[in-house]
């Protein structure tokens, strides 16, 4: 089961709101793409690569557009921890 943490939901909302300033259509589409990609984690929880900065096999990332979707595998549950723009400094944004 995929669960979004509150910080990850806030990250996705900020992305939506930023894109919506120019296009509500594309903002909605981007959010839908994120959700669609995370649904794959139900069947394949280990897709994506291990986050190189952490080197922990249970913390992985999917690259979606120019963002890093960080997730943690905990048994049958995959928690979405954060959505970080690829150009941002990982450790300044991600706090485990």
> How many domain units?
1
Task: Give the averaged pLDDT, no decimals.
Answer: 93
* CATH 4th-level superfamily: RelE-like
* Spans where pLDDT lies below 50 across 5 or more residues: none
- Percent helix among the residues? 25-40%
Strand content: 25-35%
Counting DSSP E segments of at least 2 residues, the number of strands comes to 5
Shape: globular
Number of helices: 3
Taking the sheet with the most strands, its summary is: 5 strands, mixed
CATH architecture: 2-Layer Sandwich
The CATH first-level class comes to: Alpha Beta
Side-by-side strand order of the widest sheet: 1-5-4-3-2
Can you walk me through this structure?
This protein has 96 residues and is α+β, with helices and mostly antiparallel strands. It has a single domain (2-88), classed as YaeB-like fold. It contains three helices and five strands. The chain has helices spanning 6-20, 24-39, 90-93, and strands at residues 2-4, 49-50, 59-64, 67-74, 77-85. It has a five-stranded mixed beta sheet with strand order 1-5-4-3-2. The protein is globular, with a radius of gyration of 13 Å. The two termini are 20 Å apart. The mean pLDDT is 93.
Write the layout of secondary structure elements.
Elements: E1 2-4, H1 6-20, H2 24-39, E2 49-50, E3 59-64, E4 67-74, E5 77-85, H3 90-93
Parallel strand pairs: 1-5
Antiparallel strand pairs: 2-3, 3-4, 4-5
Helix pairs in contact: 1-2
């Amino acid at each position: 089961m995929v669960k979004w943490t509150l910080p990850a939901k806030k990250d996705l909302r900020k992305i939506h709101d930023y894109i919506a300033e120019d296009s509500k259509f594309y903002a909605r589409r981007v959010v839908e793409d994120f959700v669609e990609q995370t649904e794959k984690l139900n069947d394949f929880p280990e897709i994506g690569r291990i986050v190189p900065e952490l080197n922990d096999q249970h913390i992985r990332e999917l690259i979606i557009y120019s963002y890093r979707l960080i997730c943690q595998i905990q048994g049958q549950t995959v928690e979405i921890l954060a959505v970080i723009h690829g150009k941002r400094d990982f450790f300044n944004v991600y706090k485990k």
